[in-house]
Amino acid sequence: MTPSLTVEQIRTRIAERQTTATVLATRSLAAIDAGDGALNCFLTRSRERAFEQAARIDAIADRGDPLPPLAGVPVGIKDVLSTRGVRTTCGSRILSNYVPAYDATAVARLENAGAVMVGKTNCDEFAMGSSTENSAFGPTRNPRDPSRVPGGSSGGSAAAVAAGLCTAALGTDTGGSIRQPAAFCGIVGLLPTYGRVSRYGLAAFASSLDHVGPLTVSCRDAAHLLQALAGADPLDATCSLQPVPDYVAALEGPIRGLRIGVPDFGKGLQPGVAAAVEHAIDRLRGAGCVVSRVSLPLNDAGIAVYYVLATAEASSNLARYDGVRYGLRKPAATLPEMIRQTRNAGFGAEVKRRVLLGTYVLSAGYYDAYYRKAQQVRALLARGFAQAFAEVDVILTPTTPTTAFALGQESSSPVERYLADVYTVPADLAGIPALSVPCGQSEGLPVGVQFVGRPFDEALLLRLGHHFERLNAA
Amino acid sequence: MNIAAVAALAHLDLNPDELARLERELPAILEYVAQLNQIDTTGVEPMSQPLLAGAPLREDEVRPGFSQADALANAPRKDEGMFQVPAVVSRAGAGR
């Protein structure tokens, strides 16, 4: 296993011929073979592609040429991102045999930067869920405590990195699906600004909310991954032209004097989580950050806004799964019957629930009452962040109200389940970046602290996270 | 809320158990969502997606796409280079 090697260590060791990309890929795949039976992080292993890529990296090292920044880094890719020739299921029965003809831009960029994809990671079906229990291929377990969930929907990616099966992973975040599993598994998860990372080749869930981002052991590794991922893409018209700064160089800047806003955390926060987050605030204050209260009153409405907009967009995006061109097909005498039976057999309970809710809120007579209203509140919520960022540089919250819960123990009430996303959903709605960093433990389980920033201010969040990691280790 | 009618719109064919569960759950979710009505949004422009600093446009030029074989590779049924589906219209006239 290679859990202790960072992105930079891997590159240096390959350059200095202490190891090879092929050796590291072999170790990662062997660790998956040995350890993943119990965890179920990976749905598909891309052995052949991994060794081809590793051989390319090793050839560069053999020639003595400069290695690309992510040279030889074993990565897992959430199974909602297209990979040419490698099965991509979205955690759904409806795509259990789907093999894409093209690569997602995010995957291609990681490989162009030298990373070695070792496999596709488990997730809640179409990224809808918070525990990875909604996968059609069985739940993933949390490596910190296998009786517990890793979070979701990017649970396979978070658990794989936390278990050291790979060095980094890609996840996606629509309402918290990178940051929440990162917090539950004790690793770093970054939600980039909307439009910072291309979504070409991402199976769409809610297009105005979907983001692609990295899960890593450290903020420095996250900076390296974001460096490779960020930037305009002619294949994604929602991807921004904003120039990409040097995220790694920005890590070492000062944090003294940084203004950190702390909102009211509301009710329902576990005492152990509250204590860990308060401790994090104390450490940052001790390092010279200026901590003040900040008011974000509309964030309480975030969950309601989210479950209107995300389900509405999902009902439209998931209309494409009809059994005609790819995926599962249930034979029937007529086309409409075939489509209905295919969708009924192919979609799990949470996906059906959300598609139905979304269809309802978009249906004639309800559009203005639900969808338009939610879009208006979303605008107010985003405005609230903009006003807060006139006074502070970063907003700090817990990432989640609780630590990882036990498998099968998530509330049976959908509303109660959805409320657990209260700290993560607002950044997705506003389209602003947010970073979850480990900040200690509560009863032996990891706790995450979340830093939310201005649009395209990932460099500042990563710098703060990087300094915080050192404060927290001290 | 008529779940069966919404399910028909969404091309879902729910069994009685699923129908019964959703008849409990969906109204509870909508009840929670109704809190949005207490927020004054008079004159607020709806936000359809986060601000983009000028969505980029590109030249409309021909570029390589998928081959027919690639596009059909995942088709559950295909015939003579086309996706094959059950009859949409029948000789008797009724499609359903």
Q: Descriptors for this entry?
A:
heterodimer, A: 474 residues, alpha/beta, Amidase signature (AS) enzymes, 2 domains, 11-stranded mixed sheet, B: 96 residues, mainly alpha, two-stranded antiparallel sheet, 3 helices, 31% helix
Most extensive contact: A-B, 78 and 56 residues
Number of DSSP helical runs of chain B? 3
Backbone structural class of chain B: mainly alpha
The percent range for strand residues of chain A is 5-15%
Q: Tell me the distance between the termini of chain A.
A: 26 Å
CATH T-level fold name of the largest domain in chain A: Amidase signature (AS) enzymes
Major beta-sheet overview of chain A: 11 strands, mixed
CATH class of the largest domain in chain A: Alpha Beta
Report the uncertain regions of chain A. Answer: none
Order of strands across the widest beta sheet of chain B?
1-2
| Main sheet specs of chain B | 2 strands, antiparallel
Q: Examine the secondary-structure arrangement and name the CATH architecture of the largest domain in chain A.
A: Alpha-Beta Complex
Helical content of chain A stands at 40-55%
The total strand number of chain A stands at: 11
Order of strands, widest sheet of chain A:
1-3-2-4-6-5-10-11-9-7-8
Write the H/E string of chain B, N to C.
HHHEE
Percent of residues in helices of chain B = 25-40%
SS class of chain A: alpha/beta
Q: In whole angstroms, how far apart are the ends of chain B? A: 26 Å
- The low-pLDDT segments of chain B are none
What's the SSE pattern of chain A?
Answer: HHEHEHEHEHEEHHEHEHHHHEHHEEH
